[in-house]
Amino acid sequence: MEILLNLIKEGIYMKIIPGKFPEEKDIEKYISFVSDESRNCSLVFLRRLAAFARDNGHKMTGIIGRRSSIKQQQLWDADLKKNKGRPSEKVARPFTSWHEFGCAVDLDGDY
Q: Which of 44, 57, 91, 106 has the fewest C-beta atoms under 10 angstroms from its C-beta?
């Protein structure tokens, strides 16, 4: 199973493929979180993200991880309103976001 890391700042997606980055158990060494809510993701995903950061010499800051489908709907609606009914492609449709499954985190910074 491929887990996607959503790099919102850059507007791109990167795949974290099992086995490519051996999991890093010391997550906090490579990822800091602005709140407990931002850390609320799949443990396997966070360990793979930390391994990606470790292997690429990054220290990442997580802004938000898992979010509810209700919150995703609110973000989608706000995006449509802001863009006169057209999606900006920066916000996933509700029930399609990896955030809803705990397999994505918005990051602060350039990666």
A: 57
Sign, Cα dihedral of 22, 27, 29, 34: positive
Q: Which residues, 6+ apart, have CB-to-CB distance to 107 below 8 Å?
A: 7, 8, 9, 60, 61, 62, 63
CA-CA distance, 94 to 39, in Å (whole number)? 21
pLDDT at 104: 87
Q: Which two tokens stand for residue 6?
A: 């959503």
Rounded to whole angstroms, the Cα distance separating 86 from 9 reads 20
Spatial neighbors of 36 by CB under 8 A, at least 6 apart, are none
- 90, 79 Cβ separation under 8 angstroms: yes
Kindly provide the residue ranges of all beta strands, DSSP E only, lying in 56-105, ordered along the sequence: 60-64
